[in-house]
Write a structure and sequence with these properties.
The chain is built from 5 helices and 8 strands. By secondary structure, the chain is α+β, with helices and mostly antiparallel strands.
C-alpha cells in the first residue's frame, strides 16, 4: 500500500492506495478514489489535483481532474470543467500538456484569490448531491465582497442558489 495526501479546492484527504504497475497508475488511482470521496461528501473539485507522497516528502504530483473525473464516471462534470478551461484559457484539458496549463493558471492567479463555483447536481451512490465546480470563466476576484456581489447577481438570474464563492488555494 502507498500513502498519499491528495488536495484540491479547499480540502485535502489522506488515502491508502494499492500500488499499481507504475507510479503514474498508482497516483491516478489515488486521484480517482479521492474524487469519488469528494463527490460523495459534497466537496469542490478543482481543475488541478495535488498528490503528496506521505512516505517520501520529496515526491509530489499534479494531475488534471478532467481524466480522473472521466475515470470516476463523472463525465458531465469533466466536460463542464473542460469547456470552462477552454473558454477562459484557450486550453483543452483533454488535449493540452499539463505544464502549459499550469503556466497559464499561475499567470492568472498572481493577484486574484476568489472565484465563483457552480453547484452541479450529481448522482452518486444513489444520492443526488450538489457539488461545487469552480467556474474560472465567471471571473477571478481580489476581494471576497466583489465575488459575493457577482454571485448574488448570478443567483438572481438563475432563480435559486446555484453559485457560491470559493477561495482559491495556491500550492503550485
Amino acid at each position: 500500500m502507498r500513502k498519499y495526501v491528495v488536495s484540491t479546492a479547499n480540502w485535502k484527504r489522506k488515502i491508502d492506495v494499492q500500488e499499481r504497475e507504475s507510479i503514474e497508475e498508482t497516483v491516478f488511482e489515488a486521484v480517482t478514489q479521492v474524487i469519488e470521496w469528494a463527490f460523495n461528501n459534497g466537496k469542490a473539485v478543482g481543475i488541478l489535483i495535488y498528490v503528496n507522497d506521505s512516505q517520501d516528502p520529496n515526491k509530489n504530483y499534479v494531475s488534471l481532474a478532467y481524466k480522473a473525473l472521466i475515470n470516476a464516471g463523472f463525465h458531465a462534470v469533466a466536460e463542464e470543467q473542460r469547456s470552462l478551461a477552454l473558454e477562459e484559457f484557450g486550453l483543452d484539458v483533454a488535449e493540452e500538456p499539463l505544464n502549459k496549463f499550469i503556466t497559464k493558471l499561475q499567470r492568472a492567479s498572481l493577484k486574484k484569490s476568489f472565484c465563483i463555483a457552480h453547484l452541479l447536481e450529481v448522482q452518486s451512490d444513489g444520492r443526488l448531491s450538489k457539488v461545487p465546480v469552480v467556474c474560472i470563466d465567471l471571473g477571478l476576484f481580489e476581494e471576497r465582497d466583489c465575488a459575493k456581489e457577482k454571485c448574488k447577481e448570478l443567483n438572481k438570474t438563475s432563480k435559486g442558489k446555484t453559485f457560491v464563492v470559493r477561495q482559491i488555494v495556491y500550492n503550485v
